[in-house]
Amino acid sequence: MANISIASPFIGEEEKQAVMEVLDSGYLVQGPRVEAFENGFADYCDVKYAIASTNGTTALTVALLTSGVQAGDEVIIPSFSFVATATSVLSVNAVPVFVDIEPETFCMNPALIEAAITEKTKAIMPVHLYGHPADMPAIKKIADKHNLAIIEDAAQAHGAKIDNQPIGGWGMAGFSFYPSKNMTTGEGGMVTTNDPDLDKLARMVRNHGMSQQYLHEVVGFNFRMTNIMGAIGEVQLKRLPEWTEKRNSNAAYFNQNLKTVRAPITREGCYHVYHQYTVVVPEGANRDEMVDELNKRGIGCRVYYPLPIHCQPIFKDENSQLDLPITNNMTERVFSLPVHPNLSQADLERIVHEVNSL
Rounded to whole angstroms, what are the CA distances from 136 to 30, 110, 255, 318? Predict the structure, then answer.
């Protein structure tokens, strides 16, 4: 039987035609297609401004710099995430400070944030992991109380909502359009904000610090999105609502039928977009053996993430005494199943059968 892949990016004829139009125009870098994509993405996220970037990591870097994070400042983040959450902090010479997560949602636990705040803390960077929004109302209260910036790592959460409000507007946010994400531009990222001053500064930071040609007002970088990527993004954004509905439909089928693992839990009032359908194996079960067996049976599944950030070689020495029990426990017990919109009903049934047979 054919393997069922963990991700399945879709590039159709409309995307190909859009790319050819850009190539024929000769306008290849940060042109009108990027601007149109930015405007469309801002509307989709119900924010005033969206600033395109080269990828999700540089989007976070732009957001950090724009929010005033400087060398030696501390940024509070979860350790249960992809390493770019932390390395984006390092890229601006700031210090990531790790806190534990909620076992239900896998997102940063707001109850642990205040204990991590010091006089050096500048920002809080929650991660909407796997497509489930972090508890932004609680995090916003803490940030406002301590006058801290909020930077949402929304790389996996295009369209996720809290009380029908899309994430991306709680401060600044960084999205990713890597091929495995819910929509893609090949690579690419986006910064969102409702603040006109932050919008203006972010656009300078991503374009060599320029507000006009050859006038460099701040230190900036070449983080520009190409017009080719913008054209693909325009088309993909139109498809995203339908794809998200299909992800939710697939997840609902799994929720109803999987018996041997714990299904993802969605907090009341939240809308999950299921970038990953991440399950938890019972205590004492050998997660790695289960994953290996499923892959042998043609069910593409993967562990996101097998080693928490604070235990990675680049951080391990300075965090050797750090105690993040929920992060460590979930790292040993989670794995993700295919949930992408290209799955057929037969695929869903086969996945359920194989998981339940373990």
Answer: 32, 9, 25, 29
